UniProtKB/TrEMBL annotation:
<comment type="similarity">
    <text>Belongs to the bacterial solute-binding protein 9 family.</text>
</comment>
<dbReference type="InterPro" id="IPR006127">
    <property type="entry name" value="ZnuA-like"/>
</dbReference>
<feature type="signal peptide">
    <location>
        <begin position="1"/>
        <end position="24"/>
    </location>
</feature>
<dbReference type="GO" id="GO:0030001">
    <property type="term" value="P:metal ion transport"/>
</dbReference>
<dbReference type="InterPro" id="IPR050492">
    <property type="entry name" value="Bact_metal-bind_prot9"/>
</dbReference>
<keyword id="KW-0732">Signal</keyword>
<dbReference type="GO" id="GO:0046872">
    <property type="term" value="F:metal ion binding"/>
</dbReference>
<protein>
    <submittedName>
        <fullName>Zinc transport system substrate-binding protein</fullName>
    </submittedName>
</protein>
<dbReference type="GO" id="GO:0007155">
    <property type="term" value="P:cell adhesion"/>
</dbReference>
<dbReference type="Pfam" id="PF01297">
    <property type="entry name" value="ZnuA"/>
</dbReference>
<keyword id="KW-0813">Transport</keyword>
<dbReference type="InterPro" id="IPR006128">
    <property type="entry name" value="Lipoprotein_PsaA-like"/>
</dbReference>
<feature type="region of interest" description="Disordered">
    <location>
        <begin position="134"/>
        <end position="155"/>
    </location>
</feature>
<feature type="compositionally biased region" description="Basic and acidic residues">
    <location>
        <begin position="134"/>
        <end position="149"/>
    </location>
</feature>
Length: 327
């Protein structure tokens, strides 16, 4: 399979070079002769954009640019070519990025600086939780049911949503700045100045979060990719599914549990992710019999598109909006 992958990649590279790497005229013009930073996810893309303000020698690009969830993303041939020609490549490094290993192995770009965020954040990685009332991922359970195990313990997975910690955002920005200075020493002072400014900005926002919450419990009628965010500030939660769950239909027991908790806590609101259809939330509110309970979206930034970023959406503003939503 690996040999086949290598052959296909070689063919694609040749074909793509003959067709100017299939870039649009505007994209080619904007990146030609520049250091290319390619990030798989929007937060890393935006961190890199902030670190390169005022520097025309760098082109920052986003791989998952059409709002595709990283949990279901599979690279196209053009994506693989784009990765192989990047000077700096930034990816999360979790289970959803299993495809990256082969793509990098066959890229043949020994000068590329690779930033695996989860690897760089070792010691700060959280494991997925199954909190009280949370529904098991039946799809995942069925897949594991066909595998042999030495014991009866379920495999514990790391939570991939590392960017939702402001501490992790600061640490990751430092790593990206270090890579930029290594690739482009001539503009090191610009990258350093941008890093100091941006880190100070994130640190101030982190302090606002810390000052905003005492004891707080939220109810999330959806997947829960916000573990890094809420753990950082001591916010407790109940949720329908964990962050990487493939489930979308809540069971009767899950609905009943969340409804009871909503009634007990008398919460004025329940939360969903930015891409939610709100069906579970509406059912929970109805079952709890609480009038005027609001449904508020928290943005995990998993489905942010390049067009949204180009129109001004950015990591800092999203995290500030999440703060206001949680208050």
């Amino acid at each position: 399979m690996k040999k086949l992958f290598g052959f296909v990649l070689s063919f694609v590279l040749l074909f793509s070079l003959l067709s100017c790497q299939k870039k649009s005229g505007s994209e080619k013009a904007s990146s030609e002769g520049k250091i290319t930073v390619l990030a798989t996810i929007f937060p890393a893309y935006d961190w890199a954009k902030n670190l390169t303000v005022g520097c025309d020698s760098v082109y920052v690009d986003l791989l998952l640019k059409d709002g595709v969830d990283m949990h279901s993303f599979q690279p196209s041939a053009a994506d693989i070519v784009k990765i192989s020609t990047a000077d700096i490549f930034i990816y999360v490094g979790g289970e959803s990025d299993a495809w990256v290993e082969n793509a990098l192995k066959n890229a043949g770009n020994e000068k590329m600086i690779i930033i695996n965020l989860m690897d760089k954040l070792k010691g700060f990685i959280k494991q997925e939780e199954l909190v009280e009332g949370m529904q098991h991922d039946e799809h995942e359970h069925e897949e594991h049911g066909h595998e042999e195990h030495d014991d009866h313990d379920e495999e514990i997975e790391n939570d991939e949503h590392v960017w939702l910690s402001l501490n992790n955002a600061i640490a990751s920005s430092n790593e990206i700045a270090r890579a930029l200075m290594e690739k482009d020493e001539a503009h090191s002072s610009i990258y350093m100045a941008n890093l100091v400014f941006y880190v100070d900005k994130l640190a101030a926002l982190k302090q606002e979060y810390a000052n905003s919450f005492g004891e707080k419990t939220i109810i999330v009628c959806d997947r829960y990719p916000f573990l890094y965010l809420t753990d950082e500030f001591g916010i407790k939660y109940y949720a329908a599914f964990n962050g990487c769950s493939a489930e979308s239909e809540a069971s009767f027991d899950t609905i009943a549990f969340l409804s009871v908790k909503l009634h007990e806590l008398k919460s004025p609101s329940v939360f969903v992710t930015e891409s939610s259809d709100k069906k579970i939330a509406k059912t929970v509110i109805s079952s709890a019999g609480i009038k005027d309970c609001k449904i508020i979206a928290l943005d995990s930034m998993q489905s942010t598109t390049l067009k949204q970023a180009q129109k001004g959406k950015n990591y800092y503003d999203v995290m500030r909006a999440n703060l206001e939503a949680l208050k």
